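A common beginner's mistake is to predict each chain separately and then try to dock the pieces by hand. The better habit, illustrated here, is to supply every component at once so that their relative placement is modeled jointly.
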Amino acid sequence: MILTEFDYVRPVGLEEALTLLAGTPGARALAGGQSLLPDLRTGAARARLLVDVRHLEELRGVETAPDGTLRIGALTTLAELAAHPLVLERAPEIAAAARANGDPQVRNLGTTGGNLAATGRATDLPVAAIAAGAEAELAGRHGRSTVTAEELAASGVPAETVITALLVPPGGPAGAFEKSADRATRYPLCASAVRITTDGPRIAVTGATARALRLRGVEDRLGAGPYTTDNVLAAFRAEPRELFVPGRGTSAEYLGHLAGVLTARALARAQAHA
Amino acid sequence: MDLSLNVNGRPEQFSAPPNELLVERLRDGLGLTGTKVGCDTGQCGTCVVRIDGRSVKSCLVLTASAAGSRVTTIEGVTTLGGELTGLQEALREEHGTQCGFCTPGMVMALGELVDNTAGREAPTEPEIREWLTGNLCRCTGYHSVVRGVQRACSAARAGESAATAPGQEV
Amino acid sequence: MTAVTGESALQGNGVLGQPLDIREDPQLLRGEATYVADIDLPGTAHMAILGSPVAHARILSIDTKAAQELPGVLKVATAADFTDVMPLPCIWIPGGVESHFPPHPYGLPGARPVLTGDSVRHVGDPIAVVVAETPRQAAAALAAITVEYEPLPVVTRADEALAEGAPQLHEAVPGNLNAYWTCGDKDRTDAAIAEAEVTVELDLVNQRTINSPIEPRGAVGDYNAATDEYTLYASTQGPHNHRFLLAALVLGIPFNKLRVIAPTVGGSFGTKGYLYPDMALVLLLSKALGRPVKWVDTRTGLMNSTVQGRDHRQHVTLAGTRDGRITAVRATSYANLGAYPSTIGPGVATALMGRSISGMYDIPAAFCEVYAAFTNTVSLGAQRGSGRAEAAFLMERLVDRYAFEIGMDPAAVRRKNLVPKEKFPYDNGLGWTYDSGDYRLNFDRAIELSGYADMPARKTEARTRGKRLGVGIASYVAICGVGPSTRMSKEGMLGGTWESANIRVHPTGEVTVTVGSASTGQSHATVFAQVAADELGIDPAQVQVLEGDTQKAPYGQGTYGSRSYSMAAPAVALTARKLKAKLVKAGAVFLGVPEDKVVYEGGGVHEEGNEENAKTFAELAMAMWYGWGLPPEIEPALDETTHFDPPDFNYPFGTHVAVVEIDELTGETEVVAYTAVDDAGNIGNPKIVRGQIEGSIVHGLGQALMEAAEYDEDGLLISSDLNHYALPRAADVPFFTLDKTTTPSPHNPLGAKGAGEIATVPPAAAVVNAVVDALGDLGVRHIDMPLTPEKVWRHLRGEAQ
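With all components supplied together, the output reads:
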């Protein structure tokens, strides 16, 4: 139960946090800590300074912008996210992904931003954010910017910046999330999130792929449907084989298939709600 | 680092290294050994305590990050040898414990569920089982625990008793 | 069932068998119980153990200089510091056969040194220890020790360890073969198989699993220089046994200089009855440093040091007639003992498994051979249901395979072959003589309760939901109540296996029961109080139960093999009967009537036909305390002890039925219903037993569905923490349907049979049978555990046949 050595600081505001992160080699932001602390114990992660942003009130809460965008503060816990009426109504795939995470204690501390930013393992929120067409709002010393959830999953959180919010465009009930959890860790062995839009489905998977990935090829093949299991599995089989990667004790072949099954189920659920 | 923490209603002040986990402070620093350590990876749930009412794993929280919060451990739920809470009594009636090592963590985790139930629909069996995801037990197979929670939740719903001791704010 | 409190059960007789509330529970629920990690003696220093990072290597050098100089470090020690300490012994040698062990100076089989000096033989093999002021300092110092290794080839499978040219682990053990052990009649069995109308065969892997008590082990050593006495606090199932082994066979100190105390123990499932190096090390280092020394394991440490379970590779054959009569069973098993023989591991891997393979069936010819081999893995030991679970697995898989082959219903085949009631005591031809049973009653009850007849309709319905439903039956007989000491000596057990109890009646009428056993979560205090109260006719609330401290308790062996209620509880009952007999004798004096006119009732005595002339229990207690007026043949005071050695073992049994649903698209297997009808003879407290049955079933389901200790080709344990080793969670199981039958054992005065672990024996077989049933039409005949979704999916797709 002994962690590697590091220093700790608790900034009073976001600006101070950003200054600390930018000004200290080896500094890392600590939010819920539910994956970072175990990683610091095993050596999977290293830090010389932990900048504890967990207490920054300005990064909490869920609100609706005038254009209908849902603004989810990065420090909104997964428990809050899973139970929030606005999220449940407008982005059910995100609520379901938050709910599917870990266990009640992890959800009580784990944060939206932390889950989106996690590296080294598949987590639940990135696929849901991609399916929802969401963007992440980032803050660095040089101001704020936004990045699509898809880009965030591809390139990670840039150095010396933190995620401040998840921005979810106006949606509705036509989203769903399905997961097959690793029996030991509860992280996704494979997870799929979908949203059915007027342009067709948006589909993202994780666990079966090297990172959370939007599967445009599958989307194009499925088009307007029908999203029968056979169709969805065929659309997945048409993906290049190397897209899918093996997991712990599971083959790429099985995970690729599982991703298709979970996607078919998510599509069925999304359609039922639409 | 000089830190302060409210533990079971008592203000505590101490100096701790930055990489100290809350569970280390509770057990080694404050002698609150009802909180257990069963794994190194955040899986077993024997170290669950409540911070500002929410159940959390104290091996996944830095002491420094908990500073300024109100922490409740199993010792804060009842007095030594004292009357059991509604949840504990229900678990006792269903014999929801055998070796007892996972029990304090379960009581702390389930306390939040039962508290949330007051005045609402009691959780379903699958919901109770899901809530127990963060607590491993090797002795009971969980059934007696689930029955205990069902019993406690129906009592809590009826407003007969709550997870926490009368007058205790968690 | 409603709970009965001590108050309403005041009349004594009838207290036993009632679901009284568990008196241990309030303290556990308040988090007040003291486990070994919670012990904090003044001046305690903290020990950490350096385990080998490699599975097999010669140690070329160990450099501890840098570690010694780190802040807070009090002592760094290696094997060179303990040359006068004897190796840990192994005390269960496979009986009646030639066997090979590392040596121990007393001519006993040796197991392992407290620290290894020449070679490391598994990852985690202890090489060095550090004692420091704080656990953090000790851990930091471990990291500063440098060890130079010369790598040696690694073998992790028993069958491979026996092959020509395999890496050799111990000089004294040629070819890594600890023992070739057999039971049953080989010629007859071979002949029956050769002549049979039908034979079926299976190759089975009963995979290694990790016990995983939620409390890791720990030990605190406290040496008192003033008295030259040692005290060991340890998470142990058998404090007396550990005292004997440590004092006499490891440390070489007088027996009366060592006291062993088991505090509250957080689960064990077999693991904490074994002798481990840390127990000796904390005592030795406490003496060296003049301070208490404490060691608490981590989860990863536990997984690389505490005994693991199962691990047999088997080729098994069953022969029978076309109409379903089993004529022979034969098993060849390769048992993986790990790198060193654990305290009783070799016996677990041979006799407990081999003699049990015929299960509930009346089979004319049976034979089992076991090759027990050493490999570069953690030592093998007991695990909830050990030996018997492996036996039931192979037998119950074979019966299903046979039923399929002859086109008969698996339930019908089983029913046809059950040992009939009139054949008890029944000699199973493998070394066990089953004491009592009505197997058909038990079997029929389970089948009926499970709704077995409805399964075809349920299968059809499940297919409409994309699920394949399967049903699997597994019956078992689980030898328990170890046991008769002389009989165990013939099995190669170096030790007495009796059990004890002492009862003291205090002058004011309260009672203290002290037993030699030690609870690891089995609610001993509750049930032993019930036994004493029932016999004495008093309120259980006035009975205190103590155990777990060698200074207070009469000698006994501890908790293992589900023995406490059929070994220690009878000792309690017999002791109470001695007290009653004495009270009747003394009562005659106090009442002034002949002894045959004294009636003992409700804790007191009265004159037959004259209830006015009476003494209450408290009055008798006080009178015996004073001892006034007693004749010379009656000693004052009420303090009796019994050492109970039964005439033979006891044989609980049962039938379980698992119903699974397999997702046709993902291969995920869910246990949707589970019925268990177990027979543990007369039960002391059904609330306790119910909990043990439920927990045992979930443990067994864990092996079937998810648990596996996986070693890579370098001998590294991949599944070395709970992120890599899955344990069943609450959401993994449904509520079970439970019932019991009751066949008292004739081998103890309570008619008790073992209960604690018995329900761990059949679930793995029941679940695999169910899954194979669900996939039978696809040509699937067997799937190795754990039944991971991908494995099942591949079978669904027609691969991997």
